[in-house]
Amino acid sequence: MTDPRPIPAPQDMQDRIRAILAGPMACPRMAAFGPDARLGHDLGLDSVALMTLMLHLDEAGITMAEDTFDRAPGMTVQALSMALAGVTPAPDEPVDIKVHCVVSCLCQALKDRGGIDHRPLYLGLWDGQVIVDDRMRLSYHAPGIDHGFYLHWAGRLFGLQVTRWHEDAAPGARNLDRLHALLADWRPGRYVMPMVDMALLPQRDNKFAQASFPHYALLEPTADPDTWLMRDPDFRWEGPLPARDLRAAFLAPTVAGGFAFDNAGAHPANDATIAAMHHATFDAQAVPLIDAIRRIVQAHVADLPRADLEPALRELPVIAIRKYAYEHALAIFGDIEGADHDAFEECCDRIAALHGGLNAAHLRAVAFARGGDGDDLLQVLADLDRLTLLERGIKATVGQWFDRWQRARA
């Protein structure tokens, strides 16, 4: 039987969003609210705030689709209102997948060189390092992460020799002097990659609207000493920014890191090295992110305050997006434009379902953290069990395609 309730019009949706943000969410940036206000950049809604908005809408009988939630930080109020009203999003607001800032920067050097397939560096990124701290909180960034694995394989696969110039123990002024020296010596084909806190760059959209948000990007000098060019391959953006703002974002106590490299000796990866990286990263049964979520949920049921579960999973959206790296592996090992096209599309649907399922489990965990009943908890655990089977099935496909690829090259 068809639901007789009409879908609210976009303007009604916009009014509901305004009421939720101004009322129960007490959004501090309501002065910026309007049809063209971006949810992340202008209204300051991070992934947790967006999930709160999603829950309030759900209570009002309005469902936000998973793909809409994924795009929400970069959407305007008007675009979200239209999506909630069932209006197809305009083509100028595409789904834009960001996977890993360090890998994206390294791959940019290969793209600039031309004729080099950068995708092998994404192998295994779906299981990239997952941090659970001593307070049982999930994190994509921690002081102990040095990205040495990706730097090693960038050299082994493509001949990129990466130098670590930032010294974590050195005073900020000394590292800033090194950054200035590298930029003074910059030339085309050379790459300066500092870590910056995106939360301190108000000119830049930040998909996850996190504060703080440690992030690697590429910097270049311009003819104006007060302006630097920021190239952000992970967010597919580049443009001039005030040098003073970039210095402040680099010197923030929330970040520490910097690398340099050039692409003069870069070369395509050979089959043997691609196979070696596959073997180094591929575990057909491992699901480290799902296992980490399960441990965190169970810890907040058994020992830790339930309310702390929500901030403990705050950074899950930043990590869950890495699952799209599976698509790169399939593209390497299969003929996705030819004989394997249909199989590729089917597996991409499963990858999207995995990513969407992680978001759904996150939402249910937040509902439980906010006082939900035992059914919410059971649903979260059931979701994680289902997602474990789904991800292992995706890995089985990747493994089968790799075996076929390797046999064809024997």
Number of domains: 3
Q: Tell me about the largest β-sheet.
A: 4 strands, antiparallel
Number of strands: 9
What CATH architecture of the largest domain do you see? Alpha-Beta Complex
Low-confidence stretches: 1-6, 90-96
Question: CATH homologous superfamily of the largest domain, by name?
Answer: Cysteine proteinases
Strand order of the largest sheet: 3-9-4-5
Helical content stands at 40-55%
CATH-defined fold name of the largest domain: Cathepsin B, Chain A
Outline: globular
Overall structural class, as computed from helix and strand content, comes to: alpha+beta
Q: What is the CATH level 1 assignment of the largest domain?
A: Alpha Beta
Q: Overall mean pLDDT score?
A: 88
Number of helix segments?
15
Organism: Paracoccus haeundaensis
Pfam families: DUF6005
Protein name: Phosphopantetheine-binding protein
InterPro entries: ACP-like_sf, DUF6005
Keywords:
DUF6005, Cathepsin B, Chain A, ACP-like_sf, Phosphopantetheine-binding protein, three-stranded antiparallel sheet, 410 residues, alpha+beta, single chain, Non-ribosomal Peptide Synthetase Peptidyl Carrier Protein, Chain A
Provide an overview of this structure:
This protein has three domains: 10-84, ACP-like (Non-ribosomal Peptide Synthetase Peptidyl Carrier Protein, Chain A), CATH 1.10.1200; 101-262, Cathepsin B, Chain A (Alpha-Beta Complex), CATH 3.90.70; 281-404. 47% of the residues lie in helices and 9% in strands. The protein has helices at 10-22, 47-59, 66-71, 77-84, 101-113, 148-158, 172-184, 243-251, 271-281, 288-302, 309-312, 316-320, 325-333, 341-369, 374-408; strands at residues 131-132, 138-139, 163-164, 190-197, 214-216, 218-221, 227-232, 237-242, 258-262. Strand 6 and strand 7 (227-232) form a beta hairpin. The protein is globular. It comes from Paracoccus haeundaensis.
